Amino acid sequence: MSGDFYLQPQELAKLGNAFGTRAYDLASAVKSFQGRTGDEQIHDGFGFLTESEEVTAAYVELAAEMAVSLGELARHLDEVGQALKGNAKNSEASDEALAGLFKGGKT
Questions:
Q1: 71 to each of 28, 39, 106, how far by Cα in Å?
Q2: For 4-53, how does the pLDDT look when each residue is reduced to its tens digit (9 = 90+)?
């Protein structure tokens, strides 16, 4: 495999920030969703369907499981963002150390 690879720490940090922003947005949406999917809201919003406790319980369980899964996704997106920002800092420090070596400085 030939070719050069260049990493711009600033761009990597921007990508990390974008992941963090999306994670925050998703976590906020999940909280809002959870607030609208409780027993009372379901009974008010679904009419005759909710006269069956079985149907209501299944919907509440599904909504809770979905909120947990989406919450885990938000946490994972945040972890990816933090890792990207950490890599950007490490890359920048490595670049500075390497530049110091070429200038005859100490690392």
A1: 9, 20, 46
A2: 777 888 999 999 999 999 999 999 999 998 887 765 666 555 566 666 77
Rounded to two decimals, what is the model's pTM? 0.74
DSSP class of 38: S
Question: Which of these, 64, 83, 60, lies nearest to 12 by C-alpha position?
Answer: 83
Spatial separation of the C-alpha atoms in residues 89 and 83, rounded to whole Å: 10
Alpha-carbon separation of residue 101 from 61, 86, 87, 91 (angstroms):
60, 23, 21, 15
Taking each helix axis as running N to C, give the angle between helix 39-46 and helix 53-102, from 0 to 180 degrees, rounded to the nearest 10. Answer: 120
Spatial CB neighbours of 50, under 8 Å, sequence gap ≥ 6: 42, 43, 56
Buried b or exposed e, range 63-91, using 16+ CB within 10 angstroms: beeebeebbeebeebbebbeebbebbeeb
Token pair 């997106």 is at which residue? 77
